[in-house]
Amino acid sequence: MKLVTAILRPHRVADVRAALTTFGIHGMTTSQVTGYGMEVWRTSTHRGQKFHDETVSNVRLEIVTEDADAEDVVNVILRSASSTASGAGKIWITPVDGLARVRTGERGSDAL
């Protein structure tokens, strides 16, 4: 099994979720995250005052999937979240050694 993790702009999440549901992925974990990449400083205005914001708010998606589906899941995310804007996000795949469903005790692929 593989864990596909994506960091995306918040306004892209609905499109990604719809595309993943169409592909057959019916569960994922989402988290609000902040961070920075190549663009370290952004100038924002709040109540008439300018300030430098060092972090950007994003959403982290985590999807556990079968090994054979991991690259397809990445491609679905890439297509549905594509952007030419800087800071559009990142996607990476990591191995999952084990998985268990808390409610039923199912393990491995049965727990997906």
TrEMBL record:
Q: Which Pfam families match?
A: P-II
Domain of life, source organism: Bacteria
Gene Ontology cellular component terms for the protein in this record: cytosol
Please provide, alphabetically and separated by semicolons, the GO molecular function terms listed in this UniProt record.
Answer: ATP binding; enzyme regulator activity
Q: PROSITE patterns given for it? A: PII_GLNB_DOM (PS51343)
Instruction: Enumerate the Gene3D superfamilies for this protein.
Output: 3.30.70.120
One GO biological-process annotation of the entry reads: regulation of nitrogen utilization
* Protein name as annotated: Transcriptional regulator
User: From which source organism is this entry?
Assistant: Pseudofrankia asymbiotica
